[in-house]
Design brief:
Rossmann fold, alpha/beta, six-stranded mixed sheet, about 20% strand, 6 strands
Length: about 190
């Protein structure tokens, strides 16, 4: 019992001891920041010109193709048409969304078809998990999208390189069967 009491008292005594050890602060030596030499700009150096973005007059390409399409055999006026986004099958950069807008506008102005509004196409693409800039678009995806929207026709368009010349190819397809009712090509300048 004496041992337990001795151990408890020693523990209390040791616990109450506070060892304060003060260390001198570490020496601080100020260092001047090094100045980086400024790059010398020679007035004779020329800044390279950025590449010029080629402006394409999509309206002049699409107008004659739209005229051919509305006069094709088997095309019925007043039916619902889905204008699918233009696919870029070239190795260059094209403003395909602008091309799609021009095609939609030209066909709407002809007042032969009821064109599916852009907002409905966007919502349908989201519902089906398709990106609005889907560069891997295919005819089957276009027809699937048109079926989802209950369209009668789908207009599939693609720009491709043909022996160094870019061409816009448009195909009007019947949604029920996938049959190509009309096909046309126009040079993209």
């Amino acid at each position: 019992m004496k041992r337990i009491l001795f151990v408890m008292l020693s523990a209390m005594l040791l616990a109450s001891c506070v060892v304060t050890e003060t260390q001198p602060p570490a020496p601080v030596t100020p260092v001047e920041p090094k100045k980086k030499p400024e790059p010398s700009v020679r007035p004779s150096e020329k800044v390279p010109q950025p590449p010029k973005i080629q402006s394409i007059n999509w309206d002049s390409i699409v107008q004659p193709l739209a005229d051919q399409m509305i006069n094709a055999n088997g095309v019925e006026a007043g039916k619902l048409l889905l204008v699918d986004s233009v696919k870029n099958n070239t190795n260059g950069s094209l403003r395909t969304l602008k091309a799609t807008d021009v095609i939609t506008s030209v066909i709407s102005n002809k007042q032969v078809f009821q064109v599916v509004p852009k907002s409905q196409v966007h919502l349908a693409r989201q519902a089906l998990g398709l990106s609005s800039e889907d560069s891997l678009g295919s005819r089957s995806k276009s027809i699937g999208l048109a079926r989802y929207l209950n369209a009668d026709y789908v207009l599939y368009s693609a720009v491709s390189n043909n022996h160094g010349q870019r061409e816009l190819e448009m195909q009007l397809m019947l949604v029920k069967t996938g049959e190509i009712l009309w096909s046309g090509r126009g040079d993209v300048n």
